[in-house]
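Tutorial handout. Part one gives the primary structure; part two gives the three-dimensional structure as tokens.
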Amino acid sequence: MTTSELPQRAAVQAAPLTVPLPDDVTAPARARHEVRSALLAAGLCEAQLDDVLLATSELVTNAFEHGERPRRLELGYAEGLLTLRVYDAGQLLPELRAPSPAEARSRGLVLVQALSEDWGFERCPGGKLVWAVFRVAGA
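Part two.
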């Protein structure tokens, strides 16, 4: 089953951090740095960051490689849920597919699905956004 067959659900509304993303290979590192800094400043400990940072890398890398042009990352927090959103200029919607064991790549959305409480995508003006939600305490 692909994500295009799944119902599209709305993510948590909040965005205390907005990061414009460069249209080059530095976008994932910039996004990880900004998310890490914001979460540490919000009181999360290093051990709580791993899943969110890995998902950040995967979503921004997908926006760069498949989304035509990354635009921005937003991070929001409400009621114990941290929502990560990555916007890009692409019209092609993400597809969750099981990679073959021989493939070295194409595991990004599988990882995001495994690490997050929920994830999805939405079309928006000028492209789309892909989001992931994480349950965290103390942000």
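Part three, for discussion. The CA atoms of residues 21 and 72 lie 5 Å apart. The first helix runs from residue 27 to 41.
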